[in-house]
């Protein structure tokens, strides 16, 4: 058994993780599958969009020079969307046109059907129209050659729509990381599988961690190794390694005799970057890397305590996944908060304290969610943020600014009192 040597400072731990988080290879992926990933190249407009002058309304295309109230027009053709008219518009003539229809030759304005006597072979115009009326110009959205999406942009819904208007069926993005989550512990039972026997608990971590990985844009799956048996653990890690970019384990990483995760990983050729962080919760976190001919993988040995596992995913695994997919900017918001009362930190480690946030006239007021034990899963359902207290100080004074990582961004939109 090995004991912790020196605990790594939380910021150094994040730095070491990011230094070891290489961007994943670029892949062409179908538009919708690119959602949440970062563009690996600049994207340019291939042509003017819209590609032709077209009508913004259903009505008649006319010459603006003729478009005076009271004038009667002959309808000579029609131009629905997708089928340009064959004829052109001469003096006193009109072409029936629908929204998106190509503006016919000769016409320079469209009158809405509501401003005429109605649909028919002839109509009377009730309201005059200037040149360009209801005409959506070619190139009004983007021009050929425009930089429409810069490399590094996260592909979201508007980006998918814009790329589609330009005929891009696939986008070059950094590949989605493959994450394998492995829970260890003989006491663990799959939720829904059966009732608990004495001493057993349901495995909550692997479900939470898979959900967190999915939320961070990864492909994630669970591997079951609900055991503290070294051979079972080794086999499960070997299986995970077949396709994983990132392996996340929970449990078995502290200093107990059954804490086999670290030694198993080291045996499998993983090199340790750090083990032990000056953080509460999350002291026993292990981070390692394996780069060889078969590929490259990163390993996060997270503590078994459920709050520690989830908080450490937030603080360490999520930034790594973001960096691997080229989304360095996707940090959780960090805000300055204050407490109404003094807050102690007797841990000698930085305390990532679960707090609620309330917007007040003085700013964002943080309040502990209550007991801060690392096994209190319900506490996280109440937390809006993690207030970072320490590690060097013994706490913070009432009113003093404290950095906090916001977990629920909607709290930042909270109504200002008196509004
Ligand atoms: N002598 C010491 N003991 C402990 C230390 C220490 O420094 N010296 N550190 C403590 C801290 S801090 C933590 S955190 C825990 C983490 O230990 P492990 O990562 O080895 O986790 P386990 O012992 O396997 O489990 C801890 C706890 O969490 C429960 N657990 C485990 N897996 C799951 C799961 N998938 N779902 C739900 N709950 C899970 C497990 O039953 C234990 O109760 O070590 C302290 N001890
Ligand atoms: O640091 Mo542990 O992660 O106290 O619960």
UniProtKB/TrEMBL annotation:
<keyword id="KW-0501">Molybdenum cofactor biosynthesis</keyword>
<dbReference type="InterPro" id="IPR036688">
    <property type="entry name" value="MoeA_C_domain_IV_sf"/>
</dbReference>
<dbReference type="InterPro" id="IPR036135">
    <property type="entry name" value="MoeA_linker/N_sf"/>
</dbReference>
<dbReference type="GO" id="GO:0046872">
    <property type="term" value="F:metal ion binding"/>
</dbReference>
<dbReference type="InterPro" id="IPR038987">
    <property type="entry name" value="MoeA-like"/>
</dbReference>
<keyword id="KW-0500">Molybdenum</keyword>
<dbReference type="InterPro" id="IPR005111">
    <property type="entry name" value="MoeA_C_domain_IV"/>
</dbReference>
<dbReference type="InterPro" id="IPR008284">
    <property type="entry name" value="MoCF_biosynth_CS"/>
</dbReference>
<dbReference type="GO" id="GO:0005829">
    <property type="term" value="C:cytosol"/>
</dbReference>
<dbReference type="InterPro" id="IPR001453">
    <property type="entry name" value="MoaB/Mog_dom"/>
</dbReference>
<feature type="domain" description="MoaB/Mog">
    <location>
        <begin position="180"/>
        <end position="323"/>
    </location>
</feature>
<dbReference type="Pfam" id="PF00994">
    <property type="entry name" value="MoCF_biosynth"/>
</dbReference>
<keyword id="KW-0479">Metal-binding</keyword>
<keyword id="KW-0460">Magnesium</keyword>
<comment type="similarity">
    <text>Belongs to the MoeA family.</text>
</comment>
<keyword id="KW-0808">Transferase</keyword>
<dbReference type="InterPro" id="IPR036425">
    <property type="entry name" value="MoaB/Mog-like_dom_sf"/>
</dbReference>
<dbReference type="GO" id="GO:0006777">
    <property type="term" value="P:Mo-molybdopterin cofactor biosynthetic process"/>
</dbReference>
<comment type="function">
    <text>Catalyzes the insertion of molybdate into adenylated molybdopterin with the concomitant release of AMP.</text>
</comment>
<dbReference type="InterPro" id="IPR005110">
    <property type="entry name" value="MoeA_linker/N"/>
</dbReference>
<dbReference type="GO" id="GO:0061599">
    <property type="term" value="F:molybdopterin molybdotransferase activity"/>
</dbReference>
<dbReference type="Pfam" id="PF03454">
    <property type="entry name" value="MoeA_C"/>
</dbReference>
<dbReference type="Pfam" id="PF03453">
    <property type="entry name" value="MoeA_N"/>
</dbReference>
<protein>
    <recommendedName>
        <fullName>Molybdopterin molybdenumtransferase</fullName>
        <ecNumber>2.10.1.1</ecNumber>
    </recommendedName>
</protein>
<comment type="pathway">
    <text>Cofactor biosynthesis; molybdopterin biosynthesis.</text>
</comment>
């Amino acid at each position: 058994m090995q004991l912790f040597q020196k605990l790594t400072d939380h910021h150094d731990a994040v730095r070491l993780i990011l230094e070891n988080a290489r961007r994943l290879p670029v892949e062409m992926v179908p538009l919708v599958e690119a959602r949440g990933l970062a563009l690996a190249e600049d994207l340019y407009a291939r042509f003017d969009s819209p590609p032709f002058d077209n009508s913004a309304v259903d009505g008649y295309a006319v010459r603006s020079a003729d478009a005076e109230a009271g004038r009667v027009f002959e309808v000579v053709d029609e131009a629905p969307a997708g089928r340009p008219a064959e004829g052109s518009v001469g003096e006193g003539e009109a072409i029936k046109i629908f929204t998106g229809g190509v503006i016919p030759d000769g016409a320079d304005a469209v009158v809405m059907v509501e401003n005429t006597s109605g649909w028919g072979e002839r109509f009377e115009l009730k309201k005059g129209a200037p040149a360009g009326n209801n005409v959506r110009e070619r190139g009004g959205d983007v021009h050929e050659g425009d930089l429409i999406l810069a490399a590094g942009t996260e592909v979201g819904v508007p980006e998918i729509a814009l790329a589609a208007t330009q005929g891009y069926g696939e986008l070059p993005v950094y590949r989605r990381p493959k994450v394998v989550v492995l829970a260890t512990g003989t006491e663990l039972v799959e939720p829904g599988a059966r009732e608990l026997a004495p001493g057993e608990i349901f495995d909550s971590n692997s479900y939470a961690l898979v959900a967190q990985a999915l939320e961070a844009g990864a492909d994630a799956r669970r591997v079951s190794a609900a055991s503290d048996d070294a051979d079972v653990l080794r086999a499960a890690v070997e299986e995970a390694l077949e396709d994983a970019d990132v392996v996340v384990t929970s449990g078995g990483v502290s200093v107990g005799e059954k804490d086999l995760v670290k030694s198993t990983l080291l045996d499998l050729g993983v090199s340790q970057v750090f083990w032990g962080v000056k953080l509460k919760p999350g002291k026993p976190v292990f981070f390692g890397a394996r780069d060889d001919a078969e590929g490259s993988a990163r390993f996060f040995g997270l503590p078994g305590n459920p709050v520690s596992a989830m908080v450490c995913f937030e603080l360490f695994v999520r930034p790594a996944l973001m960096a691997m997919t080229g989304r360095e900017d996707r940090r959780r918001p960090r805000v300055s908060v204050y407490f109404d009362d003094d807050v102690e930190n007797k841990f000698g480690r930085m305390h990532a304290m679960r707090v609620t946030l309330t917007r007040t006239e003085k700013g964002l007021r943080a309040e502990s969610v209550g007991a801060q034990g690392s096994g209190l899963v319900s506490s996280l359902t109440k937390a809006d943020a993690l207030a970072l207290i320490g590690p060097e100080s013994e706490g913070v004074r009432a009113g003093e600014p404290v950095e906090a990582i916001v977990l629920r961004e909607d709290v930042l939109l909270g109504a200002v009192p008196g509004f």
